[in-house]
Amino acid sequence: MNSEYPSCISCPNSNCFINKYCSQHWRTLIDKKKEVGRYQRKQVIFHEDNIVRGAYFIFTGKVKIYNTGKGGKEQIVRLVSSGELFGLRSDTETNYLVSSIALDDCVLCFIEKSLLDNMLKENNDFAVQLLNFYIREMSFLELRLKHLVQLSSAEKVAEALLMMKKKYGVLSPKGILLDVRISRQDIADIAGTTGTEAIRVLAKFRQEKIIEDKGDKIVLLKHEKLLELLLMHCCEKDNQYVNLSKCYTHVLG
Predict the structure, then answer these.
(1) Does 3.10.110.10 match the CATH number of domain 17-145?
(2) pTM
(3) Considering only CA atoms, which of 211, 239, 213 is closest in space to residue 224?
(4) What topology is assigned to 151-251 in CATH?
(5) Can you tell me the distance from the alpha carbon of 51 to that of 138, in angstroms, rounded to the nearest whole number?
(6) For 57-108, how does the pLDDT look when each residue is reduced to its tens digit (9 = 90+)?
């Protein structure tokens, strides 16, 4: 880690929690005490069981948060991008329960836990917004856990693609480009299915012209078709949609 840049005082990242919700006094203080580091694509940021020292804020880049189960199988639990934070843990957690790895080249700002605790105590707006952020993340996680049990493989992969669209989607001439280099196994790990099954579903989506492969990236040609799969899951026997927002709020954006 090094402290070359970026500066919290003149930070252009309008999505950063520090930039948006901390006072100028605190941005100046954070500037002096934070650590800034570059991480290359596929570089591990922290492992499960590493000691928690603080939290990371993404200046630029994309990161996946995952845990490892039996046989080394990964389950991706979060995707994070520029302006967001990760690695924040409660006072009772001394070790990480998850791992994190860079999906592309990243610049990360690291803030030690003691400084972060003081930030929360003395910046009410920052504390409230951070609490609201994690409440939303918890709600989305609860919905995803339900879907991991109930959705079909095609619905799970559709949900994974829509989650990637929310975090990394950019408008392109053909549709929505998922602007991140991510493997088919990563898509399977987001969806909670096998690599073989994810490849089969993606091939079906290509055949139906819902998606298009673009080298190591994917373009969503008809993202509304993916959303329809989730909506159909919310149908009752009389084909009336119920609680539609509970099916897709975590993938909108």
Answers:
(1) no
(2) 0.86
(3) 211
(4) Arc Repressor Mutant, subunit A (1.10.10)
(5) 23
(6) 999 999 999 998 887 888 998 999 998 999 988 777 899 999 999 999 999 9
